[in-house]
Amino acid sequence: MILEAKEIKKIYQGVNKELTVLDNINFQVEQGEILSIVGPSGSGKTTLLGLCAGLDNPTSGVLTLAGESISQMTENQKADLRNRKVGFIFQNFQLLPTLTALENVMIPLELQERTEGAKAIAEDLLERVGLSGRHNHYPSQLSGGEQQRVSLARAFSNDPQILFADEPTGNLDEETGLIVENLLFELNREKQTTLIIVTHDLDLANKTDRIIKLKGGRIISDQNVNNASIR
Ligand SMILES: Nc1ncnc2c1ncn2[C@@H]1O[C@H](COP(=O)(O)OP(=O)(O)OP(=O)(O)O)[C@@H](O)[C@H]1O
Ligand SMILES: [Mg+2]
User: Which of 2, 93, 135, 137 lies in the 20 to 30 Å Cα band around 29?
Assistant: First the structure.
């Protein structure tokens, strides 16, 4: 098992009332599994992904990632675990505006002090996402879909054991979306990378192993899909 969420609750404190965004979330994910999380806007998908990746803390409950209880870690320990084992594709990309596409993809490698060969790895990844001609562009000089693909290349660069992707095809046309989808599945096949994909795209969700449906901060269904043949 690579990820376990146990009785996770997330409450935001408003001015004079509490907002329960996630309530009683329980699930386990095996290494190599491809899981999609679907649900209406505001149902808590991004919040849940952030908690699972240790980017944010639950109000209560326990999260275990790659055998380590992230709920009990310091911020530094969590950052270290993320650098070593986790890739994250943000819904809003979160590229660093002052770095070029190539430099953005190199960040995870530099955080691990893997500077040797970092440039070649980043160049190769940019080529795989179809951005060979954009190495020296800054995020502001890239289209939304191009930024999304840089963000994908960055998430791959540290060879994560588990990759969290928040709407990885949300800003892409159908053809580019399929390229990205295939890259994700390829990574899973080649390296047994666990994929947790938040998506509004039911075609994509239906190609994964399992679909968790969220509504109003609760899991309303958690079903296996038998789809290995489609991928
Ligand atoms: N920092 C915050 N403070 C207060 N409320 C928040 C905060 N972050 C998120 N929320 C609320 O939590 C709920 C869930 O947000 P979340 O971003 O997880 O939804 P989502 O399912 O990812 O939606 P979408 O499909 O639109 O991306 C929303 O109602 C949102 O307003
Ligand atoms: Mg979201």
Answer: 93
Give per-residue pLDDT as tens, 116-130.
899 999 999 999 999
Ligand 1 pocket mutation, candidates 12, 17, 93, criterion most atoms within 8 A of CB: 12
Distance 119 CA to ligand 2 centre (A): 31
Which ligand 1 atom is nearest residue 19's CA?
5
Domain boundaries, the chain: 3-224
Q: For 3-224, CATH number?
A: 3.40.50.300
Q: What are phi and psi of 52, to 5 degrees?
A: -65, -35
- Local confidence band at 228 (pLDDT 50, 70, 90 cut-offs): low
Taking the model in full, what pTM does it have?
A: 0.94
